[in-house]
Amino acid sequence: MELAVLKATVEQMREKYAFSQRHACGLVTMAVSSYRYQRRCSDEPLRTKLVELAREKPRFGYRRLHVLLGRSGEHVNHKRVHRVYREAGLMIRRKKRKHCVREGKPLLVRTSANQEWALDFVHDAVECGRTIRVLSVVDAYTRECLALEVDTSFASRRVTRVLDAIVSERGQPQAIRCDNGPELTSRHFLAWCVERKIELLHIQPGKPTQNARVESFHGRLRDECLTVSWFQNLFDARRKIAAWKIEYNEERPHSSLGYRTPKEFAAAQAANFYTAEREARDSNGRCYETHWKIDNKDAKMPCKRGHSWPISKASSAVNTPCFLPRWTN
Fold it and tell me: With contact defined as beta carbons under 8 Å apart, do 133 and 153 qualify?
């Protein structure tokens, strides 16, 4: 305990139990000389000087006021300055920062693509020292990297433009998990999600583990790309990060996917989905045959009643599922 607290304890014991000074000091293990010590120097000149400086600089704390005292030629211990500063009531009232209150939502096991997208930012710098930001969008089920947008800053409208581009290619998600950054809590971003009926899952402030999938992806991105690359400028960073994105999706084995690439895993899951969809429709009295388009202009695709038609080269694509209905009588 501090000396002032010990002195107050001794005073209380003497008043309540009529102990002597020596007896009371012995019970609290305090030297009698410390209890009897009386300060000889006066703090009034220091108090007056501190009050004058505090009026000139009302937002300065005791550390800065201590520096100003030293500049004026008064060398005082900083602990003494702090004590007199508090006794004079010069403490600065700091406004408590307001944080948005979020309820923690645990990670759910996803069973198909586009059920949840994880979104976050990662920072780096180019050769001149200018900071760049990378917007990452990851599918929570297939672990595919849907976007790695690189720029010096991101507004909420820029984020929604990137998401619109992804939606136009693979459809919109059911939910988006993200943190509480200004880009992801703005009115424009909230309205964009409400308009498309996308559920927003904001994590609690200071708990990035609630968005663990994208944080794990950022670990791989930093270890395998950002740390080992030297970006000359913004355009060089975009080129190298885009190349790593292709490598991640199409070449890098992913341990949580059975050491398959995210693209292979997504294709396999899509095939299983189409098979299940066909079986479900067959059970309802309709028969659907699943065919795969191939990149061959001379290939023919069977249609109903045993006929066939050629597949145009412009509309053909590798590994693209196509359903042709055949109604059964």
Answer: yes
pLDDT digits 0-9 by tens, 138-154 = 999 999 999 999 999 99
Q: Do 287 and 272 touch, CB atoms closer than 8 A?
A: no
Q: Which pTM does this prediction carry?
A: 0.58
CB 203 within 8 A of CB 180: yes
Task: Choose the CATH number for 117-252 among 3.30.420.10, 1.10.274.10, 3.40.50.10490, 1.10.3210.10.
Answer: 3.30.420.10
Q: Please, what is the angle between helix 234-250 and helix 212-221, to 10°?
A: 110
Q: What CA–CA distances, in Å, run from 317 to 91, 171, 247, 299, 314?
A: 71, 19, 21, 12, 8
How confident is the model over 182-193, as pLDDT tens digits? 999 999 999 999
Confirm if 209 and 215 have CB atoms less than 8 A apart: yes
CB 114 within 8 A of CB 133: no
